[in-house]
Specification:
Length: 297
């Protein structure tokens, strides 16, 4: 029997044509993804991909499977959404976030949607950084506000870019880089760099950074442990100014960082929930609210 999860994994590899990148978008390890693809190939009795040093390519059998796999995954999502709708005693909508609920943007949107749907139960949920897309991917949230590197699509998740932000290096007040006008990745030489666990870096609250020059990499899962670690001189971390503004610490400084790209601020939701009018309306209100907030800055 073919499982929709295996087809989702297959489509991620087919879209990326690279096992490691596909694993990152799925928030699973590369060996686990390779094992699932091998099991799917065993089930069909054919090779779906040709492997090479530069990545993978679809075989003729793989190309034939792609449209059917997309159709089955979409149908499974639609079925799940229909079952959730049918079994819902009262309509509920959970808004996920990692760091800050962005009150200036979120409050007007929540007020507008609540007025439009008086029976809708809205709630906020702060997610752990180990939850991809702040819980949207797992179903713990319906809509979320997240930061992510450019162009990192996640299968089954839709997103709308609200803004593009520069990144900064968070350092302790007495750190050797605290007084610099700017830093570049090479300045991380010899440093301990705080990063997210590998399985959580897709649609995550912290930037994935080139850490080859770092003396050591430390995995973090909450903003509190990150800020206290920076303040105590235990490491540094690449974040956006908005993160540090929302979570100020008297012993943490931010230094502009160049040569690393920018981060996108997204509103995200599940593809399977696009038929829910309250989800569509909340996304539209969040987009409009952010635009008004940006003009007023």
């Amino acid at each position: 029997m073919v499982h929709t999860r295996d087809l989702t994994y297959f489509l991620a590899v087919a879209d990326q044509l690279h096992i490691t990148r596909a694993a990152a978008t799925l928030a699973i390890s590369q060996p686990a993804l390779s094992k699932q693809i091998a099991s799917l190939e065993k089930l069909f009795g054919v090779s779906l991909f040709d492997r090479g040093p530069a990545g993978v390519t679809l075989t003729r059998a793989g190309e034939a499977l792609v449209p059917y796999a997309r159709r089955l995954v979409e149908l499974a999502g639609e079925a799940a959404a229909a079952v959730r709708d049918a079994g819902r005693d009262a309509a509920k909508l959970t808004i996920g976030f990692w760091l800050s609920p962005a009150n200036d943007v979120l409050a007007p949107a929540v007020a507008a949607v609540s007025g439009r749907y008086p029976d809708l139960r809205l709630r906020l949920r702060r997610a752990d950084w180990t939850e991809a897309a702040a819980g949207v991917l797992s179903g713990m949230a319906d809509v979320a506000l997240v930061e992510a590197p450019h162009d990192e699509p996640v299968p089954g998740v839709r997103s709308h870019r609200l803004a593009v932000e520069d990144v900064v290096l968070g350092v302790g007040a007495t750190h050797r880089l605290a007084g610099r006008d700017e830093v570049v990745p090479a300045d991380l030489a010899g440093e301990t760099v705080f990063v997210l666990p590998q399985e959580a870096r897709s649609l995550s609250g912290l930037r994935t950074v080139p850490v080859e020059a770092a003396a050591r990499v430390e995995h973090v899962t909450t903003i509190d442990e990150t800020l206290h670690g920076i303040a105590m001189g235990l490491g540094v971390c690449v974040v956006t100014p908005a993160v540090l503004a929302a979570h100020p610490h008297p012993a943490v400084r931010c230094v502009p960082m160049r040569g690393i790209g920018q981060a996108d601020y997204h509103v995200v939701w599940r593809l399977a929930d696009e038929s829910r009018p309250e989800v569509r309306d909340l996304v539209e209100e969040l987009t409009a609210s952010h635009a008004r907030w940006a003009r007023a800055r």
